[in-house]
Amino acid sequence: MELPQAYLDRMLRCLGAEEFAAYLASLERDPYSAIRINGLKSEGDAVARKVLTSFEPVPWTKNGFLSEGEKPSDHPYYYAGLYYLQEPSAMAPAAFLPVTPGDRVLDLCAAPGGKTTELASKLQGEGLLVANDISASRIKALQKNIELFGVKNAVVLCEEPSHLVPHFPAFFDAILIDAPCSGEGMFRKKGGMSKFWLEHGPDYYCEIQKELILQGADMLAPGGYLLYSTCTFAPEEDEEVIWHLLTQREGFQIVSLPDFPGKCDGRPQWSSQIPEDAWNDLKKAVRFFPHKLKGEGHFVCLLQKEGVSEKRAVSPARKGRVPEDVMAFFKDVSWQMDPGRIRVIRDHVYFLPEGEPDLTGLRVQREGLFLGILKKDRFEPVEAFAMALRMEEYARSISFACEDERVKKYLKGETIDLKEEEFIEKGWVLVGVDGYPLGWAKSDGRRLKNKYHPGWRLL
């Protein structure tokens, strides 16, 4: 692996000869891969046992499992949204941000959605999750992952972070800023990152990061938590950004994070800009080094804003006329549905998060849960709705065993023949695997006409 000489010189100076040699040696092994279980649908290691022939837990999160040498993206459970494929160190930011059901949470740089989906799992369908990303090209992946995980209470925005501040002053209980960075910690996993480093290194990104962290601070409610992370080693992008926040905004303190094997403290001593009397505090940040643990390079720092979070009243849902076809479909759904939270935008039907704020003037990509589409004489449910349901929450459902060849047939978009004992009433049917929803089909009583989204199909 060829790395920029300026980068190597700095790492040698910072790490010292012995640790630098260990770091270089770690870059010669294959990167680690892992799965993170969807806490909205399962918990513990039951899914990992079904998907992986062997695994070990990721130490810094309760629902991550190393998956070396396997292809879990081929398993039907992946299509059921039961887990996310994620680099182990990248699981840390969402794992360490304190989130409880009912909170208002912002993922400021959210695409492609790995961290967003874990925050959604922590919310358990309660409260509000705002997932924002400035890149329109990356929003599609973010939206699909949110839908695949069955997230009901998310709003997806495509905005400059500076545009969010006047809309959400001191609004969020928890904010995650996984900032764009020079990517030094990913050199092993993505060899091409070293080229980008030469074009846009730490000096380029640190100014962006300093703006982002101040914008996040201004949107954080009293008593709230802000977690800042990068996948780089440069102190200009890590400890110096935290120091910038502490000097520019009053009332923030760094929070210590739990211990785990391979954990390393922050390295403020690597910076010439941070005074020595601040070092002890900044050492509460956490660094991930590939020669210390099974993961790539990462930096994580958790901060809390002083004050006490106030209980806020939930704004009443906006009232409007709900199409009869939609209400007729919901007679077969066991949810306690508030009609005031259903919104029709053109022919698309959405279920809004409870207490959703006014989003006027923002570029909204997805508002709540996408339920379905209104056709001339009917309502047709979509995959996002199916993934947010449990099998028992819909009147007509059928689940096939994971080993049943009809599961793959369904995922490929083929018509499914039913056995006599499986014959089911005509109409929309929720299709699943081992009790977990996959999508919709239309029953004629004896067979299922496949309605699985072409863009989601198994190739």
Overview of this structure, please?
With 459 residues, this protein is an alpha+beta fold. It has two domains: 89-388, Rossmann fold (3-Layer(aba) Sandwich); 390-459, Archaeosine Trna-guanine Transglycosylase, Chain: A, domain 4 (Roll). 26% of the residues lie in helices and 23% in strands. It has 15 helices and 23 strands. It has helices at residues 5-15, 17-26, 46-51, 76-79, 92-96, 114-123, 136-148, 161-164, 193-199, 202-219, 239-248, 279-282, 324-329, 383-388, 405-411; strands spanning 34-37, 56-57, 64-66, 83-85, 104-107, 128-132, 154-157, 172-178, 220-230, 252-255, 264-265, 286-288, 298-305, 342-345, 348-351, 364-367, 369-374, 379-381, 397-400, 416-417, 427-433, 436-443, 447-450. The strands form four sheets. Strands 5, 6, 7, 8, 9, 10, 11, 12, 13 and 16 form a ten-stranded mixed sheet that branches. A five-stranded mixed sheet has the order 19-21-22-23-20. A four-stranded antiparallel sheet has the order 2-3-1-4, covered by helices on one side. Helix 7 (136-148) links the parallel strand 6 (128-132) and strand 7. Helix 1 packs across helix 2 and helix 10 (202-219) crosses helix 11. The longest helix is centred in the middle third of the chain and has 18 residues, at 202-219.
